[in-house]
Amino acid sequence: MIYILIYIFFTTVFPFQNNVIDSIDIPRASNVTLPVNVQYGFCKLKSLSPKEAHEEKLLLESIAWPQTPPLSSPNSLSKTSDPAHSSFIILPRRKGGQWQMGDKLEVLIQMCDSQGYPKTYGGDVLFARLSNTALGAGVAGQVTDYLNGAYYAAFTLLWEGSVTLVHPSEAVTELHRLNREHPDRIFFKSQFRSGSVTETTTCNVCLRPTQQPVCNYTDLRTGEPWLCYKPKELSCDDRINNFNGGYEEKISTMDKLFKRSAFCRNSSL
Q1: How many CB atoms lie within 10 A of CB 162?
Q2: Which residues form the signal peptide (predicted)?
């Protein structure tokens, strides 16, 4: 007998750790950018060539995610996907009879909000996996988004195990907004050292306009930007390393969306 458990779990998505990179290629041909006019746009990147633009288009199309509607204002969790009110149905075996190893297990999932109403749009992040802890093995399932609140998941039954599904579409909308409005939410640091003097400043692909000069380490060959606020005493050429500085939490809504968890229901075959 195969026991199927659907568990929906929301988790924080900040896997960055504050690890110092000791051996990196530090560009020495740096220059200082004077304070920029605070009226200028934030995070302006180099224009792409036609070839680069085409490649970017293909990459974005390959990872395209369904459009999700904007969150209501004020934000209300009652309209977000809720695992406690969602359900799933294990579809009958196509050939009838008992399930056997190698069969294709098909599951139809209906997402509902916190009030129990069926969702009418897709975009939820569903990770489907058939796993066996005793064997220490697992196989990923294929999930199809019908874009109307319903999802289809298919697995090959290689062993007895459990299915874990992870999601919420509203969190995807919130992530898109945060990435657009706060591209520097994840930031980095660099150390500068000369003799007995050591300073640390913030670095990123783009920096918010301030009255502080900026060290420009943009790669002259690829055009990849990298900027650091200039140390007060040391020069840009005194940079010795780069490491993850952390991230700024501007996400009270995200906390609520990602830190909820609940069991949906159990089913057995």
Answers
A1: 17
A2: 1-15
Q: For residues 208 and 181, give the distance between their C-alpha atoms in angstroms, rounded to a whole number.
A: 12
CA-wise closest residue to 169 among 95, 244, 258: 258
The pLDDT value recorded for residue 185 is: 78
Q: What is the per-residue pLDDT for 250?
A: 59
State the 10-residue block means of pLDDT for the chain, 269 residues long: 38 29 36 42 72 88 76 70 82 83 87 88 82 77 89 82 55 70 83 96 89 90 88 95 82 53 40
Q: How far is CA 116 from the centre of its chain?
A: 27
Residues 167 and 144 in one domain: yes
pTM over 0.70: no
The residue among 227, 188, 235 whose CA lies nearest residue 207 is 227
Total length of the chain: 269
Does residue 262 belong to any structural domain of this protein?
Answer: no
243 and 190 within one domain: yes
Asked whether residue 146 falls in the same domain as residue 102, the answer is: yes
**CATH value at residue 116:** 2.60.40.10
The answer to whether 203 and 242 are in contact (CB under 8 A) is: yes
Identify the pLDDT of residue 208: 84
Report whether 262 contacts 84 (CB < 8 A): yes
Start-to-end Cα distance in the chain? 6
